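Feature request, filed as a ticket because there's no other form

It would be nice if the structure record came with a short human-readable summary line next to the tokens. Right now we just get the raw output. Example of a typical job, pasted below so the devs can see what we mean:
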Amino acid sequence: MASAPVSAPLNPQVVAMIREFSAHHYESCGARQFGMSPADLAEVLAEVVSQWNGNGNRNNAAAEIAVRDFLATLRLEELVLARACAAGDNHAWEVFLNRYRATLYESAYKIAKEESIARAVADSLYAALYGVDAKGQQRTSKLRSYQGRGSLQGWLRTVVAQEYVNLYRATRRETSLD
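Raw output as currently delivered:
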């Protein structure tokens, strides 16, 4: 499973800590069911740690404790699901849709207050989450930006709101023929 380049290289102690954390939590986070190896999980965690404040780059005990505490606060199961979906795992998408489809539609409806617009927002968001561009070609899922720091459900609500704003901006200058 390939990941995006990390912000900065992590010090060896932090890398070892991430590998240990990954091995310890591998079974409980559901990575195996999505075809993720412990090394893949460690790679995802290293990317997340690297993008988080850069604290994993310093070579001191305080930074290592901060990283350990940070790893313990991650919503690991949700992060694994999001990254598996971003990688295109079909089983992960089934799980994702079963868990979060209702949330996406409810959030879109609460914002749009009109069924057809809510469906358009949700459908547009599905394409962005799956990683299909406007031409239907590119595969860069928006789920790659989920870092596991908050709930995936809350993150999705935020993304739905932003998608609605984007749709509104794109269509506000259109005039109806009615």
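Something like this underneath would help us a lot:
The chain has seven helices and no strands.
The CA atoms of residues 79 and 148 lie 5 Å apart.
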